[in-house]
Design brief:
two-stranded antiparallel sheet; alpha+beta; globular
Length: 133
Amino acid sequence: MAEVKHGRGYVYSIQYHIVWCVKYRHKVLLGDIDKKLKEILNQIATDNGFTISEIESDCDHVHLLIDCNPQHSIPNIIKALKGVSARLLFKEFPQLKKKLWGENLWNPSYFVATVSEHTEAQIRQYIQNQKVR
């Protein structure tokens, strides 16, 4: 269960389930690219003061369960995660540009849902099972 945290004058527990897809649903999140993506996303989270408590991908999309504070906005979190990860993955794996022209790794849309203490375990299990199917 998510930890209840204390800020200056407030108490909170904020979790989001976030999903986004590779542009054109190309199946490029494999092997070293997938491994590097997860490292990059975790570093972005650390650098921006939020936590990824679950992460898994399945060739053409990525699922995250994040913990953040009330000062974080979803658009800024998504912008940081998608923008920085795309730039760094294109730099390290230039072959991605052949499949994904126009310098766009990610589809511009995304899914986000709030997570409660009642749904957290189900969402964690769902994310962990992304590659099991």
